[in-house]
Amino acid sequence: MRAVDRNLPLVVEDVRPEAEGVVSLRLANGTSLPSWRPGAHIDLVLPSGLVRQYSLCGDPAENTHYRIAVRKIGVASGEVHALTPGTRVTVRGPRTAFPFVGGGPFLFVAGGIGITPILPMVRACAGSGADWRLVYTGRSRASMPFLDELPGDDRVRIRPDTEYGIPASGAELLDGLPAGAAVYCCGPAPMITGLRVDLALTRGPVHFERFAPPPIVDGEPFRLTLRRSGQLLDVPADRTALDVLLETRPGTPYSCRQGFCGTCAVPTADGSSMRICVDRRTAVLDL
Ligand SMILES: Cc1cc2nc3c(=O)[nH]c(=O)nc-3n(C[C@H](O)[C@H](O)[C@H](O)COP(=O)(O)OP(=O)(O)OC[C@H]3O[C@@H](n4cnc5c(N)ncnc54)[C@H](O)[C@@H]3O)c2cc1C
Ligand code: FES
């Protein structure tokens, strides 16, 4: 993914509840904003300085504002929920790590807040005559944003998991997959893993975006030395250097936690640097 070195000063125009624990924000500054395509996200720089990524979930044809929707989970999303109209924020991007390509057929699969990048894709299809379907799952209907913005026809399958008691498996989500369909998925890690496993059997193309880091598979433990204090930190096989560092230094900066934004990069004593959210090696950190 290419970095977008562009800081847009924007103002929060509107904050709107969209579902339990989810608000949408309308961000604008009275000018035309850079264009974007379905699947794009922005970096939102909050008044506290925290930076997080949020998918654009409005209409790409409307260039006077950006719309994002945020589920309240931790510190930064809590700060987003407390924003009020008139607050100034900085936006970087938009950039696309989840490009929407091809002519269909498409199967869209969204889990909860994962509907945000999928919604503009569905809208693009709904107006184009493409062959598509959407499966949208969540803990309950009340927790699922934008139900009222989805096309009201049988190509849309809403599946609140509480009705069935267990989260949908990959096979259930793929039930009725049109032949040759490309799958676009955004949702929790088990949903993405289930789809990838089941699609490996059919060899269908799958495109996905993660909002949170994937589980560490086949990790090796390693040791970090903090040069200035001499402190030694052992990183176990199933955790990241960032996770371990945050325990002793809660203010350690991070953003995407998937290795692409560079926020967590720390210089090392050998003259290189380490993205501590993903890099795994014994090193002396210049901290
Ligand atoms: C490309 C991209 C697009 C994103 N788009 C959106 C979006 O449209 N809307 C949105 O609400 N978030 C989105 N996110 C996630 C967002 O950037 C933040 O990670 C999220 O708001 C949590 O930040 P926090 O500081 O509140 O929580 P933190 O304190 O950083 O994290 C708290 C814990 O929650 C976990 N977590 C993070 N996101 C989720 C999640 N969705 N479900 C369950 N657990 C999670 C983390 O792994 C962590 O353990 C996106 C992330 C990426 C990388
Ligand atoms: S937090 Fe984005 S690269 Fe590490």
- Count of folded domains: 3
Shape: globular
Largest sheet: 6 strands, antiparallel
CATH C-level label of the largest domain: Alpha Beta
Range of helix content: 10-25%
| % residues in beta strands | 25-35%
Second rung of CATH, namely the architecture of the largest domain: 3-Layer(aba) Sandwich
> Which superfamily, in CATH terms, is the homologous superfamily of the largest domain?
Nucleotide-binding domain of ferredoxin-NADP reductase (FNR) module
Distance between the termini: 28 Å
What would the average pLDDT be, to the nearest integer? 92
Number of helices: 6
String of helices and strands: EEEEEHEEHEEHHEHEEEHEEE
Taking all Cα atoms into account, the compactness measure Rg is 20 Å
Strand order of the biggest β-sheet: 4-3-6-1-2-5
Bound small-molecule species:
flavin-adenine dinucleotide, FE2/S2 (inorganic) cluster
How many beta-strand segments? 16
CATH topology of the largest domain: Rossmann fold
Describe the structure in your own words.
This protein has 287 residues and is of the alpha/beta class. It folds into 3 domains: 7-96, Elongation Factor Tu (Ef-tu), domain 3 (Beta Barrel), CATH 2.40.30; 106-209, Nucleotide-binding domain of ferredoxin-NADP reductase (FNR) module (Rossmann fold), CATH 3.40.50; 222-285, Ubiquitin-like (UB roll) (Roll), CATH 3.10.20.30. The chain has 6 helices and 16 strands. The chain has a 6-stranded antiparallel sheet with strand order 4-3-6-1-2-5, covered by helices on one side. The mean pLDDT is 92. The protein binds flavin-adenine dinucleotide and FE2/S2 (inorganic) cluster.
